[in-house]
Amino acid sequence: MMNHTYDPYENVLSVMDKAMEFGHIDTAMYGIIRSPQRETKVYLPVEMDNGTIQIFEGYRVQHSNIRGPFKGGIRFHQDCDLNEIKALATWMSLKCAVANIPFGGAKGGVKVDPSVLSKKELCRLTRRYTYAIEPIIGAESDIPAPDVNTNAQTMAWMMDTYSMLKGKPCPGVVTGKPLELGGSNGRTAATGRGVVICTRLLLESQGKTLKGTKLAVQGMGNVGSYTAKIAYDLGAVIVALSDVSGGIYCEAGIDPYKAAAFLESGHLLKDYQAPGVTHISNRELLLCDCDVLIPAAMENQIDETIAEALKCSCIVEAANGPTTAAADEILAGRGITLLPDILANSGGVTVSYFEWVQNTQKMTWDDEKVNRKLETILTQAFLDLKEERETSGCSWRMAAYIIALRRMVQAEEMKGIAL
Ligand code: GLU
């Protein structure tokens, strides 16, 4: 049964507390990094196309800037609330520490269903939100990026609004921008590419190969679609895909390029037809016969009931927080390997870091350089986790949290508390 009282912030805190104990992390220093540094809530008046005014609620939670400027995406979603954003901001701090890039963590969001807004309404909402959080963001202080239901266009509007307020172009204030406005080669595909790199490293560490491995991908947004396409290019068999309308399954494999093109032309997967393809629910996708399950949608997808019934041997978390803490225990008991979100989806923020570096240096790197550097960073992060896991005899998630907390605590200790 779905846990309706699920709280993602409680979830991340419970895992952090466990890692603190298991990894013997200094409790006083841990106390400092356990709570966010700042939570901002804003109310955004927006003129709708029909002339009425609607007030939207927005958030920006700045969890930690111990290791560098606050960093993290902005999501537009009808279920968005402060607690969810707090959890996502915390995951960003942990994620940047795992990838070992010099950023802290933050997250923002607006409670809105963007599918019912026109492009002009969306533009006005994005600009109003940027205006509201302008005092606390900046290339040296807090750098937003895309997340669920936001993209390069959203970042272009944010950068333009911020630059207008500052009276000069400020490309470094956001990442995930269009290439024309100082975006980085490889950024749009980066999170998916990172998921595939991590999946390949995990399989290789088990003596297997990505080629021929059966993958099921939940979610066909930016992360899910690039994950499926890049894995398919490398020879993986994509047995299942899904979007908000439901899933599709084909034991012989689905061509994700065809499915993505169908979605881009304004359709939903429930209407997708191809030889051998059958229609399944999102729940059936999670429980389908596959080797690696890749949740690439929202939080709280793999709960205890689902965990009991999964048929996969590995889970690679492309979404943030798709697995509950209680489900984690069940997976461990069943011997299902799980590669955690804070490693598996860190390719996005890693290439955001490259974008920020390129903006700072007024340089442009080509695709080859971006992808090579991404691979180097993720491989090192994977090896760090593997070593910690072997030394501590813990799960991949515990290893990731221990490494992240240790790095954050060490930075906090070196810095000291001035006031
Ligand atoms: N929203 C992405 C994430 O959850 C990317 C964040 C970023 O690039 O700052 O990791």
Key structural traits:
47% helix; seven-stranded mixed beta sheet; Rossmann fold; alpha/beta; five-stranded mixed beta sheet; globular; binds glutamic acid; 419 residues
Please explain how this structure is put together.
The structure is a single chain. With 419 residues, this protein is of the alpha/beta class. Among the domains are: 36-172, Leucine Dehydrogenase, chain A, domain 1 (Rossmann fold), CATH 3.40.50; 190-344, NAD(P)-binding Rossmann-like Domain (Rossmann fold). It is built from 15 helices and twelve strands. It has helices spanning 8-22, 27-34, 82-99, 119-133, 152-166, 187-205, 222-233, 256-264, 282-286, 304-309, 325-334, 341-344, 347-361, 367-392, 396-415; strands at residues 38-47, 53-64, 70-77, 105-111, 142-146, 214-218, 237-243, 246-249, 278-280, 292-295, 314-316, 337-339. The strands form two sheets. Strands 9-8-7-6-10-11-12 form a seven-stranded mixed β-sheet, with helices on both faces. The protein has a five-stranded mixed β-sheet with strand order 1-2-4-3-5. Strand 11, helix 11 (325-334) and strand 12 (337-339) form a beta-alpha-beta unit. Residues 71-73, 145, 147, 175-176, 320, 345, 348-349, 352 line the site of glutamic acid.
CATH class of the domain at 190-344: Alpha Beta
Structure summary, number of beta strands = 12
Radius of gyration: 20 Å
Ligand inventory reads: glutamic acid
Low-pLDDT stretches: none
Secondary structural class: alpha/beta
CATH topology of the domain at 190-344: Rossmann fold
N-to-C series of helices and strands: HHEEEHEHEHHEHEEHEHEHEHEHHHH
In angstroms, what separates the terminal alpha carbons?
A: 48 Å
Strand order of the largest sheet: 9-8-7-6-10-11-12
State the CATH superfamily name of the domain at 190-344. NAD(P)-binding Rossmann-like Domain
Average pLDDT over all residues: 96
Strand count, sense and barrel status of the largest sheet are: 7 strands, mixed
Strand content: 15-25%
Q: Count of DSSP helices?
A: 15
Architecture (CATH level 2) name of the domain at 190-344: 3-Layer(aba) Sandwich
